[in-house]
Design brief:
By secondary structure, the protein is mainly α. 69% of the residues lie in helices and 4% in strands. It is built from nine helices and four strands, in the order ααααββααββααα. The strands form two sheets. A two-stranded parallel sheet has the order 1-2. The longest helix has 37 residues. InterPro entries: ABC2_TM (IPR013525), Plant_ABCG (IPR052215).
Length: 226
C-alpha cells in the first residue's frame, strides 16, 4: 500500500523500489544471520574453523534473503496481509516438506513432490550445503553392525542423507544466490505487469455508459410547458 501510494505520487518507480528495498534490507538480514547464527553454531559444537562458520552464515543469509523475496512476491499477488501470511506460510511449508529433511529424497513420490518440487525448494540446497559443510573430511565411530570401526562423513552424506555428491558445497551456495536474484526479478516483473494491467482492468470495470434518454421526463416537461 505504501509503495502504491508513493508510486501514484510519482516519487519513484518499480525498479527503484526493488533496488532500494534490497539494499536497505541487506545489512539487517546479514546482522540477524551472523548474531543468532554464531550463538547457535558454537553452542551445538559444530566445526570450529572460521571458514566453516562463514559458510554457515552465508547460507543462512541467503535463505533469509530468499524468504524475504518470496514474501514480496506473495504480497504483490494477494489483496491483504492476512492472505499474504497464509499463502507465504503454505508455500514455505510445502518447500520444507520437500527439502530432503523430513523425507529423504529417494522416499519422495516422483510425480510432483520430487519432480519438480524437490528441486524448486531452496531448502534442498540449504540443507545439502549445511551437511557438506559439517560432515565432509570427518571420520566418526561406526556403531552399525557388520561395518568397520569408523565411518567417513562422505559415507554418511551419500548413504544416510542421500546428498548429491557430484558437486561441492559452493555450488549449493551459488544456486541459492541465483535464486535470490530470480525471486527479485520475478517480483519486479509482477509489479511491472500489475502496473500495466490494473489500469486496463479498472477501465473495463468502470467504463462509462451512454447516457439514456428519459422519454417520460421529457413528456412531462412538455405538458407542463403547455
Amino acid at each position: 500500500q505504501i509503495f502504491g501510494r508513493e508510486r501514484l505520487n510519482g516519487h519513484y518507480g518499480v525498479s527503484s523500489f526493488v533496488i532500494s528495498n534490497t539494499v536497505s534490507a541487506t545489512p539487517y538480514l546479514l546482522l540477524i544471520s551472523l548474531v543468532p547464527g554464531a550463538i547457535a553454531y558454537y553452542l551445538v559444537g559444530l566445526q570450529r574453523s572460521f571458514d566453516h562458520f562463514a559458510y554457515f552464515s552465508l547460507v543462512l543469509f541467503m535463505t533469509m534473503m530468499l524468504v524475504e523475496g518470496l514474501m514480496m512476491i506473495v504480497a504483490s499477488a494477494v489483496p491483504d496481509f492476512l492472505m499474504g501470511i497464509i499463502t507465504g506460510a503454505g508455500i514455505q511449508g510445502v518447500m520444507m516438506l520437500n527439502g530432503g529433511f523430513f523425507r529423504l529424497p529417494h522416499d519422495l513420490p516422483k510425480p510432483v513432490w520430487r519432480y519438480p518440487m524437490y528441486y524448486v525448494a531452496f531448502h534442498k540446497y540449504a540443507n545439502q550445503g549445511f551437511y557438506k559443510n559439517e560432515f565432509l573430511g570427518l571420520t566418526f565411530p561406526n556403531n552399525q553392525a557388520g561395518g568397520g570401526d569408523t565411518i567417513t562423513g562422505d559415507e554418511i552424506l551419500r548413504d544416510y542423507w542421500q546428498v548429491e555428491m557430484g558437486y561441492n558445497k559452493w555450488v549449493d551456495l551459488a544456486v541459492l544466490f541465483g535464486m535470490v536474484i530470480l525471486y527479485r526479478v520475478l517480483f519486479l516483473a509482477i509489479m511491472k505487469l500489475t502496473e500495466k494491467v490494473k489500469p486496463m482492468v479498472n477501465r473495463l470495470r468502470f467504463r462509462r455508459t451512454q447516457p439514456s434518454v428519459h422519454i417520460a421526463d421529457q413528456g412531462f416537461e412538455a405538458n407542463g410547458a403547455k
